[in-house]
Design a protein that fits this description.
This is SURF1-like protein. This protein is α/β, with parallel strands linked by helices and about 240 residues long. It has three helices and ten strands; from the N terminus they run βαβββββββαβαβ.
């Protein structure tokens, strides 16, 4: 019996090698792309944090609302409570409810939305108590948010304008339902205005998903696994087994 019988040697085949190289190129490219996306997302989040930390900007006549995304703003105007609606589904503790969005007519005549905070289900429009509806000209302070993007996916429930309930931002449809020339802009309040802390507002924290590092690790891990499988199957015994 030869002394090297049963020993393994590296003997790759042409097609397995070609397929493995192609797979590695794709997987490594995907991982690198996700790392670049990670750097971009981190820069984006850092920029948003800087904007939120900046001093508030007062919205005056002709102020460009599109440039106030993620900026603290103050505005004077009048609430249009009859056109208020509930947005989304959200629980506070074990109590179901939603966020209250109320059209707000600025002093220059433009109408924006104000996210006033959370209310329990039984107090949502059209059942908001009068005591929770500030009257006359008021000043609001919050974080400006552009609402051009509908931010809807296949899991998002259908909007129900007839019930004054919305689950995704569709400002043109909201304008049609309310009969108001709504601007695609919301001021998200961070402090409660009404008695007993209702609607319940809270400090604003942007929800920007950043899963790129996990995706990159997945792609690189798959590349390592593919290489390992290729090496194992390319090692053969001297008798070809």
């Amino acid at each position: 019996m030869p002394a090297d019988h049963g020993r393994r040697r590296f003997q790759p085949g042409f097609w397995p090698t070609a397929a493995t190289l192609a797979g590695l190129i794709v997987l490594l490219a995907l991982g690198t792309w996700q790392m670049r996306r990670l750097a971009w997302k981190e820069d984006l989040v850092a920029g948003i944090d800087r904007q939120i930390a900046a001093p508030p900007i007062e919205i005056g006549p002709g102020t460009d609302l599109a440039g106030l995304n993620f900026r603290h703003v103050t505005a004077r105007g009048t609430y249009l409570h009859d056109a208020a609606f509930a947005f989304g589904v959200e629980a506070s503790g074990n109590e179901p409810g939603a966020r209250l969005a109320t059209p707000f007519r600025l002093e220059d005549g433009r109408v924006v939305l104000v996210g006033r905070g959370w209310l329990p289900e039984n107090l949502l429009p059209p059942n908001v108590p009068k005591g929770l509806e500030p009257e006359g000209v008021v000043t609001v302070t919050g974080v400006g948010r552009s609402r051009v993007d509908p931010q809807r996916n296949w899991l998002t429930p259908a909007n129900e304008p007839e019930k004054r309930r919305w689950f995704s931002w569709d400002v043109p449809a909201m304008a049609q339902a309310t009969g108001l020339p709504l601007q695609p802009f919301e001021i998200v309040l961070e402090q409660s205005e009404g008695p007993a802390g209702l609607p319940k507002a809270s400090p604003y924290h942007p929800e920007i998903p950043n899963n790129h590092l996990g995706y990159a690790i997945t792609w690189y891990g798959l590349a390592a696994a593919l290489l390992a499988v290729y090496l194992v199957f390319s090692l053969q015994t001297r008798d070809g087994r």
